[in-house]
Design a protein that fits this description.
single chain, mainly alpha, 0% strand, disordered N terminus, 9 helices
Length: 253
């Protein structure tokens, strides 16, 4: 078979398989790591594993300190594993993107700051809108992050949130998912941008609080597509956004 056809088929399948495998790792690895960690901890603390099993049905905000610590450790371990796998599989693409990013380093860094300002302005607007509509509460994802940050191993959750999450999520939702829509399905860029943003938002929250995540996802997708699909642009914006969110979280606590 012609090499060009083989390469085309390979690329098309790559985005689909990479996205599905990545989601599988994100959802199934914690289901393996957390119980295993609980079993290991339970060997020196009789009765803990049974307690851990009873807490599985509780929201993170209602779990015991030890269970929260196990989940914080799990989140960090899973994120680190996935990040390492991404670096191994995508090392050539990441190196090429980084070289391109460095060519206009200061311009790109300024662009990241400007995109962050846009996200912040939109987020403030959404908060005001929610208040006007008398929508109370917090997104479940946000509550979970706050609970894990407050645990004894909260510093691991801090590393996961600030450093690992922007890297992993941008690879999955921009490099893989956006690539799937744009390269494999051949959708127009604006369709790929909207669809990848919608899926990003839904995975973070499928309630009314979806609209707190969708603007962020839309800006990240725009920054990716407008800067020649360079992953370091949305990654930088995402990192800056998470740093700001953590700082605000600490100030509130």
């Amino acid at each position: 078979m012609d090499d060009r056809i083989m390469k085309s088929l390979s690329d098309n399948w790559f985005y689909l398989i990479a996205f599905l495998v990545s989601l599988g790792l994100m959802f199934f690895l914690p289901a393996i790591v957390a119980p295993t960690t609980a079993v290991i901890y339970g060997t020196g603390n009789p009765g803990f594993f049974e307690q851990f099993l009873t807490e599985l049905e509780l929201p993170l905000s209602e779990m015991s300190s030890t269970t929260l610590s196990i989940y914080a450790l799990t989140q960090f371990a899973v994120s680190l594993i996935i990040a390492i796998l991404f670096i191994i599989v995508l090392r050539k693409r990441l190196i090429n993107d980084f070289k391109e990013f460095k060519r206009d380093l200061w311009y790109n860094l300024l662009s990241i700051v400007l995109w962050f300002i846009v996200i912040t302005a939109i987020s403030v607007g959404m908060v005001v809108l929610f208040e006007l509509l008398k929508i109370e509460g917090t997104a479940e994802n946000q509550e979970g992050v706050e609970a894990l940050m407050a645990s004894k191993l909260g510093f691991l959750m801090l590393i996961s949130t600030v450093l690992l999450a922007p890297f992993i999520e941008e690879i999955i939702f921009r490099k893989f998912l956006f690539g799937l829509f744009e390269k494999t399905f051949r959708f127009p860029i604006y369709i790929a941008t909207i669809l990848s943003a919608v899926i990003f938002g839904l995975i973070h929250d499928y309630t009314i609080f979806f609209f707190m995540y969708f603007p962020l996802a839309l800006v990240l997708s725009l920054s990716y597509s407008l800067y020649k699909n360079n992953i370091f642009m949305p990654m930088g914006v995402h990192l800056l956004n998470n740093v700001f969110a953590v700082i605000m979280m600490v100030l509130v606590f």
